[in-house]
Every structure is written in structure tokens, then in C-alpha cells.
């Protein structure tokens, strides 16, 4: 299969391999896939999506094929493509601002993400998987969830965040979101007036909490964290005008 993609990727386009589907509120349940597709849209780098062969060379999703090569990890991919296509969007910001962007991204991907995993897979998943848990979806989707959930909980346990209870997980999420909200302040985007690479990660990391019905932090996002909610809608309006139609397409499939 991977050899096939080597050939196809020699035609100038990036092939984004990612896990899609099974969500009524997001184009993809994976924040890392959402980050990468948002980045490709932001930079206008030509790409096509492969939703089938989504486990990459490092056993995770997403990954890309480009010019006959395979590359894993959304951050390595972003950095590689930014260099290759001369799209270093964060360069308009100072070194210190970029450092703040890096720290925010790392917190979202390596800390907030795991709290989200626990929310989805241990405490009832009051988001994209809620309907699966209630059995409102197909048997296959229920089965996939049943197979994936223990694996995700075990990864979260090894990482450490998975050892906390529901109240502690919610406190972790709230703390992280408060920090991002402070960094964002009155900015339109994470570091200022223009979006950069790290916006794709932050948007993707927040999307599940913001766009889910019955988000664990719904009240806070409508109140003290409302700048985060507005930010996510700004990113969505800018880069995902087809967000809803994407969802409708998923529902039909
Ligand atoms: N650092 C990786 C993380 C990717 C990642 O963890 N993806 C998840 C899906 S959201 C995954 O593949 N999980 C499967 C596993 O860890 O076995 C990246 O930025 O691409």
C-alpha cells in the first residue's frame, strides 16, 4: 500500500493520510489530523486526502506522502512543508512571541490532548463519541470504540494524565484553557493579527471542546473563556467554510 502512495505523491501534491469520519461535530476526531489539514488550507499548499491508509510509518495518524517520500508526525510535517514551500508564517513575529507559540502548542498537544483523551474514552466522552456510547450509531462504530477505548486509556495511563479522576481532569483542562485564553487576550490569532503554524495546532486542540454539544467546559467557554470560542469560530470561518457540509457528507456515508 505504502509503495502505491510513493508513486502517487510524485505528481506535485501532498497526500495527507488521516483518520476521518465517525464524528458529528468535527471533520475528523483526531486533533493532529485536523491541525495538519488546517495548516495545508492556511498555507494553500496543494493536497489531497487519503482516509483509508491512515496509520503512518510511526504507527500514528496523520502522515504524508510527498515527492515519493513518507513523513510522520504533524509537527515534523508542518516544519518540513513550511521550509519546502517557503511558508514560514511565524517569521513575522518576534523570537519571544514564537517561543510563546511553541510553548502553547506543546501544552495543547502533550498535556491538554491527554486530558481530552480521558474525557472522551474514560468519563463518558461527552463529545464526539457520546452517541457511540449510547448505541445511537452503527454496530461497527460501537465495536471500533470498544476496541480503541482501552488502548487510549492505557496510553494515557503511561503518559501520566490517565491516572487522574474526572474532577482532576476537568481542572487540568480548565487551567490549560485559562493559560491559552491569557496568551490570546484580545489578539485575533494566537500571536497577533495574522495566523501562523501554531494556530493550526491550538485551533485543532480546542475544537473538540468548542464545537461539541455538551462540552465539559461549555459554561466557561461562554463566559470567562469566550475569547477562545470566538477564536475557534474565526479560524473555522477563515479556513473551513465547508465545515458543515463536510459533516453532512460524513453523515451520509
Ligand atoms: N505527535 C504526533 C501525535 C499523533 C497522534 O498521537 N495521533 C493519534 C490520533 S489523535 C494516534 O495516532 N494514536 C494512536 C496511537 O497512539 O497508537 C503528531 O503530531 O502527529
From TrEMBL:
InterPro entries: FAX/IsoI-like, Glutathione-S-Trfase_C_sf, Glutathione_S-Trfase, Metaxin_GST, Mito_Protein_Transport_Metaxin, Thioredoxin-like_fold, Thioredoxin-like_sf. GO terms for cellular component: cytoplasm. SUPFAM superfamilies: GST C-terminal domain-like (SSF47616), Thioredoxin-like (SSF52833). CDD domains: GST_C_Metaxin. Transmembrane segments: none annotated. Residues 31-121 form the Thioredoxin-like fold domain. Residues 175-235 form the Metaxin glutathione S-transferase domain. Pfam families: GST_C_6, GST_N_4. Belongs to the FAX family. PANTHER family: FAILED AXON CONNECTIONS-RELATED, METAXIN RELATED. This is Failed axon connections. It comes from Orchesella cincta (Springtail).
Amino acid at each position: 500500500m505504502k509503495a502505491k502512495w510513493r508513486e502517487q505523491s510524485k505528481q506535485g501534491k501532498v497526500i495527507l493520510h488521516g483518520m476521518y469520519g465517525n464524528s458529528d461535530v468535527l471533520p475528523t476526531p483526531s486533533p493532529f489530523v485536523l491541525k495538519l489539514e488546517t495548516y495545508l488550507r492556511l498555507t494553500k499548499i496543494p493536497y489531497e486526502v487519503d482516509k483509508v491508509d491512515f496509520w503512518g510509518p510511526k504507527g500514528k495518524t496523520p502522515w504524508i506522502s510527498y515527492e515519493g517520500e513518507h513523513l510522520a508526525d504533524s509537527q515534523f510535517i508542518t516544519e518540513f512543508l513550511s521550509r519546502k514551500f517557503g511558508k514560514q508564517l511565524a517569521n513575522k513575529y518576534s523570537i519571544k512571541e514564537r517561543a510563546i507559540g511553541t510553548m502553547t502548542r506543546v501544552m495543547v498537544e502533550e498535556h491538554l490532548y491527554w486530558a481530552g483523551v480521558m474525557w472522551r474514552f474514560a468519563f463518558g466522552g461527552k463529545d464526539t463519541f457520546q452517541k457511540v456510547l449510547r448505541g445511537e450509531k452503527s454496530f461497527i462504530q460501537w465495536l471500533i470504540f470498544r476496541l480503541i477505548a482501552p488502548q487510549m486509556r492505557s496510553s494515557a495511563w503511561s503518559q501520566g494524565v490517565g491516572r487522574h479522576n474526572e474532577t482532576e481532569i476537568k481542572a487540568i483542562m480548565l487551567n490549560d484553557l485559562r493559560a491559552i485564553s491569557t496568551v490570546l487576550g484580545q489578539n485575533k490569532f494566537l500571536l497577533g493579527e495574522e495566523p501562523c503554524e501554531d494556530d493550526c495546532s491550538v485551533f485543532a486542540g480546542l475544537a473538540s471542546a468548542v464545537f461539541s454539544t455538551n462540552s465539559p467546559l461549555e459554561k466557561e467557554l461562554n463566559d470567562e473563556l469566550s475569547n477562545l470560542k470566538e477564536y475557534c469560530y474565526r479560524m473555522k470561518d477563515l479556513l473551513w467554510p465547508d465545515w458543515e457540509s463536510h459533516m453532512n457528507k460524513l453523515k451520509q456515508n
